[in-house]
Amino acid sequence: MESSDWTEEFGAAITVCDASGVVLAMNRAAGEVFAKDGGRVYIGKNILDCHPEPARSMLAGMLKEPRANTYTVEKRGVKKLVHQAPWYRDGRCAGFVELSIVLPKELAHRVRSEKP
Q1: Domain residue limits, the chain
Q2: Which of 15, 22, 91, 115 could disulfide-link 98, Cβ–Cβ 3.0 to 4.6 Å?
């Protein structure tokens, strides 16, 4: 599976795996995240083999029982929002997509009310 044109230059890391956990695609930003390991070297490899515990067990559980997982993480002073969610083909879970978005130091939060 090749990245679509719009995903290649999208401003966040996108990684897609199939229902068994094999990485199908990584956009440019995802490749840059893993540049020290060879960039897109993980395409064709199982995502479970790329994660230590407890992340490995959590991802295995997501593949077994599809659900979303969202969290923030900070590493080397860079804070990111990570959203992992199942993707579907013909109504069946086909794997999951991970979006990793670098967050600005100051992040606005807005609460919107419904119109009367």
Answers
A1: 5-102
A2: 15
d(CA 86, CA 18): 10
pLDDT, one tens digit per residue, over 53-77 is 999 999 999 999 999 999 999 999 9
Full strand arrangement of the beta sheet holding 78-89:
23-26, 13-18, 92-102, 78-89, 69-75
Residue 41 Cα distances to 38, 60, 94, 110, 111, angstroms: 5, 21, 21, 39, 41
Residues 6 or more apart in contact with residue 74 via CB below 8 angstroms: 80
CATH architecture of 5-102: 2-Layer Sandwich (3.30)
For residues 13 and 1, the answer to whether their CB atoms sit within 8 Å is no
Closest alpha carbon to 19 in 53, 62, 73, 76: 62
Beta strand pairing call for 23-26 and 13-18: antiparallel
pLDDT exceeds cutoff 80 at 100: yes
